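Annex B. Sample input.
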Amino acid sequence: MLKRGMPPIHPGQILKEMYLEPLGLSQGDAAANLGITRKTLSQLINEHQGISAEMALRLAKAFNTTPELWMNMQWTFDLWNAGKKVQLTKIKVFRGVVKSHTTKTTTIEVKSAKKVAKKKSTISHA
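Annex B, continued. Sample output.
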């Protein structure tokens, strides 16, 4: 979970301050190149809209970055904001769940995989 200190910067602000302004690009010119409306770009820059996967692909191409860069910025921003709203103190860890580890893809380990597989098999044949 992200720490609750300073909030992450919205990717729209990063787009404006680190890409558009240094390159001297107007919102209209940038929007035209990205194949979106100026209104859509304005909503993103003014934090009224987030980065979608499609937008991440467009931005990555236009600014020679990766879509993951843009998606990770949005994910970090969204997760931090959700963490301020969601009450987690009353949620308990399910019995039988082992502390998971994270790799490139998230994995969840269960103590008794055979029991889980057997239950899934029983459910699918019901």
